[in-house]
Amino acid sequence: MSVEKYLKPEVINQIKRLDLRAKFVVKGFLQGLHASPYHGFSVEFSEHRKYSYGDDPAHIDWSLFAKTDKYYVKKFEAETNISGMLIMDSSESMGYTYQQELTKFDYSVCLAAALAYLMISQQDPVGLVTFQEAISSSLPPRSKRNHLGNLLTVLARLKPEGKTNLAHSLNQLAAMLRTRTLVMIFTDLLDDVDDVFNSIFRLRHNGHDVILFHVLDEAEVNFPFTGICELEDLETQEKLKVDASAFRADYLDEIKAFREDITLRCAKGSVDYVPLDTSMQFDRALVEYLHSRQARF
Amino acid sequence: MAVAHMLILGLGGLLVMVPIVLHLLMRPKPKVIKFPALRFVKEMHSSNQRSLNLRHWLLLLLRCLVLLAVAAAFAKPSTVSSAFGNWLGVGMGGLLCLLVIPILIYALVWSKPVNLPLSIVASAILALLITYTGYTLKSATSEDSSHILADQQAPVGAVILVDNSPRMSFRRENQTLLEKVQDQALWLIKQMPLSSKVAVMETGDEYPFFSVDVSAAQKRVETLDINYAAEPIPDSLELAIEFLVDSDFERKELYLFTDLSESAWIDTGDTLQNMLEEHPDVALFILDSGVEDPQNFSLGPLKLSASSIPVNGELQLETEVRSKGPGAELLLKMYLEKPDLTRPVWQDGETLVPEEYWTRITNVKVGDDARTPCKIILQDELVEGVHHGWVEIEGGDSLEVDDRRFFTIDVQPSWPVLIAHPYDVTPYNLSVALETAGGMFNVRTVPQDKLAGEPLSDYSAVFLLDPRPIPDALWANILQPYVESGGSLALFLGANALDRDKQPDESFRSEAAQRVLPGPLGRDWFRKQGDRFLSMENLSHPIFSDFRSQASRGIWQPFPIYRHWEMDIDPDDPNVQVVARFTNGIGAILQRDLGDGRVICMTTPITEPVRPENRESWNELFNSGRGKTVWPAVLLVSEIAEYLASSNRDRINLSVEQSVTLFNDINIMPSEYRLFSPRGEEPVRVASAENFLRYKFTDTPGIYRLKGKFNDQTVLRGFSTNMSPEVTNLTRVDLDDLTAMLGEERFQLAREREELVRQQGTTRLGQEFYPVLALSLGLLLALELIMSNRFYKKVG
Asked: Greater confidence, B280 or B678?
């Protein structure tokens, strides 16, 4: 997988188009989320307002008082820099695809690339962590233009293999993160969900914002098999013979229940949950998600 | 059940092993698909695996059944029609059992936990199915007589029963039904397999037999002729079945050629049906040669006022015109031959008969499917001798045989009548009455004590007027033999029957008297008020034929009855009847049929003076005082006399197949006659034996003429026969009634040859299961295809 795969001309076109839209959106959600606490740091004047009791006297515009003999306070807009951290599940199950061009991993990479592009173009630092059973590689957050290339290079070299242990990896991550970070997890969640959410809640507890991109293959969502077939787990090599036709309805119910369970857990922990499958256009899915996020904040 | 190719069935059974072996040993490996989300699959895998296994076994079952159905279809199983339904039931029941058993196993064994409702329902259904299958299997094997099924060309023992009733002379398309039936029967005989034996029967035949060869059977068919006697078909069928059952042939076939008219199918109870049930190996084919909506006019029974009348007497003929189908206005014509001593005569191979007739023509309008009565009267023209005649519908129709009715009358100079009376009784009233009858009677009057000396056999009737006690010897030796040999006796009982104690005299109660009288003489009834009369309640008896037109019930009112006897009759005696009653309900005129003659007894006298000496009058029947006309009593007495005198000892109007007996005193009559039958054959000789002429071959309706010579004088006599009008009733039998009579699916009904051939094939080869098996095979293949497609669908 080459870097160009993720940012081919037509993909860049998509991203550019997305960029214009997402710029505001990204700005909006980053600023809206992190307004006010960092006054005085990289502030930008916004407007004057009459002083009223309770305002910090430090914000009184004394030069204006000199001209007008009235107290005005300055209002500022804080321009926040937030670190983003892309957490990529690179276990073998992420390398699965049934019919689509993109594996779950490729899909996640595209998504991550788009988000990284958006953040870097916003001059927000973004980092990368990949993991299987534990964190396997990481890039610290940077906001330089060439950092995107580094990110994509690491991602392109990465090959999904081995088993997953998301919970453990997140625990390692939590120990690593010093500042408040926007943690964007790309995984298929084929792991022990209870442990995973314990880790996610720990991240939340540490003040990080978490967006969970739950990426499944189209086959995993729709179960398109018919007749009798033998299914093999990629990670454990376990095999099961099933009558797929008779099984489909039950499977769909099961997967729906699973997603609903995740949704509930995420809602409980104020985690953004983005269920995706590889049949969805990732840029459109991203735009839709960002719009919905903007509406919420 | 019979199987044509048992080998194929055996091979099919072995072939069933193939899918089983394939299923157990060569199960196809499913395609391996990599699938990360296996954890969701695992959770439901075990239940899915159970249903998968069940479906596998179902598929295996279906494949085995497909192979079995193919083998069974090619093996060509067949059975007799009656058992076909039951075998089908067995097949369906077994199949359903095979389908329910896996469900039950699933519910009990594979389903975790045990699916109790499903297992209960499946068990109940299985139990029902097993019961049903067992029951139908039992019925099927008990009804199955498939051993008779074999090659269509196996020899047959066949009875061809031809209904040759007069209805079969119905003409259609210039051919009578009998001729059509003969053609069909000849064809049928020709197409019988080699070595078959055929017995040709006609209805009424009592001894069927197999013809020696085909040509003899054909000859027998060709010579079949109409049988005018009414022979019910069920009786003949029973005979034919008995005959076939006794025969050695494995395959027994009974062909009935009939027009399916209702009148031939007299319900004879369950005998026929039971026979057909007991012998399912006798195949019954009914070939319907009848006409769906026949149109016919016919004459009903012919009633003569008397078969013996005096010269110048009146002849009344009553009959009815019947229509089947649309009505019309018809001409009814009566012919009565004028006596011609030169005829009949046999000349050039044919019988020449008198050519001059008296004729009467009348118009009759008859409605649709209706009956119109009509009456023809001939008076004052007859001369002494035996006359033959007939009544016919002019013009004719498709069935001519019932358009004509024959009759014979014997015209005598006058009827000799003997009146016996005690000295104190005057016969005046009766004499007057008989004289008013226009010279029909030749009356001789004797005192009662002279009765024993009279040759009673010379008299047509003997009247005893208010008789005194009659000794037993007279009863037993003279009166009883006279009546039994055809004489008629009338008694008018009155005061002389009382003994000195005013009780009924013992001579009228004695054993000898009771052998003649309708009953022993009982008490006498007395009513002074004069309000008791003869009743006119019931006028059905012939002696009231002239009273019917009077219609007035009050004609007896001026003639009170004061006193009368009562006879203790036995109500259960079929020979005794009460002809008329008094208004108090006691019998006034009683009749007893005794031997060939009859006795009429009136319980009040007709000879009562208006004022008898020393006693009171018994009635005023002949009291013409106060301006009364005694016509009712005169009419009644003359009618009684006519009724008694005309009852000839010879019955000369008979039904076909009735044997005739004519009194023939060789002292005054020829001892031998030549008989000219209506069949137009050469006359045969009939000799008198013990003063009687007897002849029993009256199988054809028409006039039978007797010609003899006595002292060089030609003597002509004869009689007529008619067939029963019911024989030609063309109303068709209802198919449901026929089925009820013969049994469900116990006969095959055909109209055309092709239909018969088809039914013969079905009966000989049995009903084949091939179409059902082919259909089942199609269904099983479709099911198998659906299931296998569903299971082994190519992924992707």
From this structure: B678
Domain ranges (residues) in chain B: 2-80+769-791, 156-294+733-765, 296-412+651-728, 415-646
In chain B, the residue whose alpha carbon lies closest to the alpha carbon of A220 is: B37
Q: What is the pLDDT of residue B10?
A: 82
Closest in A96, A235, A242 to B41, CB measured: A242
Topology given in CATH for the domain delimited by B156-294+733-765: Rossmann fold (3.40.50)
Tokens of residue B207, six digits: 């001894």
CA A266, distance to chain mean position in Å, is 14
For residue B34, which residues of chain A lie inside 8 Å, CB to CB?
96, 231-234
B629: Cβ–Cβ under 8 A, 6 or more apart, which residues? none
Choosing among B40, B46, B53, B59, which should be mutated to test the A contact, i.e. which has the most A CBs within 10 A? B40
pLDDT band, residue B420 (cuts 50/70/90): very high
b/e map B702-718, b = 16+ CB within 10 Å: bbbbbbbeeeeeebbbb
Determine, for residues B791 and A243 on separate chains, whether the beta-carbon distance falls below 8 Å: yes
Domain A3-33+81-296 CATH class label: alpha beta
Architecture of domain B296-412+651-728: Sandwich (2.60)
Residue B203 and residue B260: Cα distance in Å, rounded? 13
**In the structure, what pLDDT confidence band is assigned to residue B439 with cuts at 50, 70 and 90?**
low
Give the integer Cα–Cα distance in Å for B661 and B596: 12
- Residue A11 in this model has a pLDDT that exceeds 60: no
Please state whether beta strands B653-655 and B713-722 pair in parallel, antiparallel, or not at all (unpaired). parallel
What is the C-alpha end-to-end distance of chain B, expressed in Å?
50
The answer, yes or no, to whether residue B648 has pLDDT greater than 70, is no
Question: Which amino acid makes up residue A110?
Answer: C
* Shortest CA gap A188–chain B (Å): 9
Positions of CATH 3.40.50.410 in chain A: 3-33+81-296
Q: What is the total residue count of chain A?
A: 297
What is the ipTM metric for this complex? 0.72
User: Encoding tokens for residue B20?
Assistant: 């089983």
DSSP for residue B493: -
Q: Which of A194-203, B139-148, B337-346, B526-535 has the lowest mean pLDDT?
A: B139-148
- The reply to whether residue B34 touches residue A96, judged by beta carbons under 8 angstroms, is yes
Structural contact between residues B68 and B13, judged by C-beta atoms closer than 8 angstroms:
yes
A210 in Cβ contact with B8 (< 8 Å) = no
State yes or no: pLDDT of A209 exceeds 70.
Answer: yes
Nearest to B415 by CA among B640, B630, B668: B640
Tell me the chain B residues in contact with residue A227 when contact means C-beta distances shorter than 8 Å. 30, 790-795
The three-state secondary structure class of B395 is: coil
Q: Which residues of B452-477 are buried (b: 16+ CB within 10 A; e: fewer)?
A: eebebeebbbbbbbbbbbbeeebbbe
Token pair belonging to B674: 């030549």
Least confident window among A44-48, B54-58, B583-587, B618-622 = A44-48
Q: In Å, what is the CA distance from B397 to each residue of B229, B301, B324, B723? A: 21, 18, 11, 18
Q: B504-514: per-residue pLDDT in tens?
A: 888 898 999 99
Backbone angles phi, psi at B700, to 5 degrees: -120, 135
Query: Are the beta carbons of B33 and A229 separated by less than 8 Å?
Result: yes
Spatial CB neighbours of B358, under 8 Å, sequence gap ≥ 6? B335, B336, B338, B378, B381, B389
**Contact (CB<8Å) A227/B42:** no
Q: How many CA atoms lie within 13 A of B599 on its CB side?
A: 26
Under 8 Å CB-to-CB from B123, ≥6 apart: which residues? B104
Intrachain domains B156-294+733-765 and B415-646 with the same fold = yes
Q: Does domain B415-646 have CATH number 3.30.70.1070?
A: no
User: In whole angstroms, how large is the CA radius of gyration of chain B?
Assistant: 41
Please say whether the beta carbons of B483 and B489 come within 8 A. Answer: yes
